[in-house]
Specification:
386 residues
Amino acid sequence: MTGLLVLAAVRAVAGGDTARAVAVTGAAALMGAVYGAGPSLRSVRSSRSAATVWLGALGATWLVLLALTPDGLWAAFPLYFLHLHLLPVRRALPAVAVTAGAAVLAYVAHGAPVSPGVFVGPPLGAAVAVATVLGYQALYRENERRRQLIEELVSTRAGLAAAERHAGTLAERERLAREIHDTLAQGLSSIHLLLRAAERALPPGAPAAPHIEQARRAAQDNLAEARRFVRALAPPSLERDSLVAALRRLCEPGAAVGDDGPRVRFALSGAPVPLPTPYEVALLRIAQSALANTVRHARAGRAGVTLTFMDASVTLDVVDDGAGFDPGSPGASTAEGGFGLPAMRARAESLGGTFAVESAPGQGTAVAVALPLPPTPVPAPVGGAS
């Protein structure tokens, strides 16, 4: 803009008409001052209405310059970009058209030689400016959209990584709880029972009695500590509640299947008995995985979870009225996401239980798990201990 205004002033001075040169130079200086004031005003940078007022003032000074010299039409080109940058498209395009028309009419009114270039030059410059600005804006919007997609992808990847770490942590905690329960806790319980039996078999006043009593108390204290470790490593759903309460809460609306999932009903049969932590963890995880499969694949309207305590076993049944599938078809044993049917079967069989799936296309699905109740520890005879 500065170069075009200087060019108009220099050509007016070179023309030899002093009065005209002064007028053109003054108009060019005024337009340059208005143009330079725009970026320095905060209101013009932040308010579209203020920018419109500034554009109007700049256009008025340009019309004055254009009335004094045909060389003012060259300033129309930067004005095109200002209109397209500061005004919405529906107002910018008419403003560009009016500016191009005013440049052509002023050039002809000054008596300059008429040629095709007079009528083609300003409109062609306007078309180039419109294509450049609109193309840049489209490219900018596309880059912004890609940037947002990349940010969402990075955020999603971070969330998945955190979820995988959390799942791995929970799996390791469950494994440690199972190992502690099946090895240390059971061994300390047997030691405690054997020491109690040995203590009862000793005659009164035996020298070894205090040592056996001390060993029995140490075993009892360490057994209690091991059980605290097992409880601390149990899943959060089982930290404060029993398995029955955790399953009942799992079947509440929105807990496991979401607001749009099937209605889930929980039923309890038989008198609940205390179960080892690995049993409770396995049954809860199998119920969660089965309900997750129901939501993802079954499109069911209703589902039911039944926990049954019998004399020698505990069973869990998860039934839905969804689409069903053919258990014998290839790939049917692997559920997308979650633990899947193979993982559920592995959990049940690792505890000596059984796992069964009954389903058919269009007839729903039933998952049944049966775990044998662990026998109550019985003190070994003192004389037969080895």
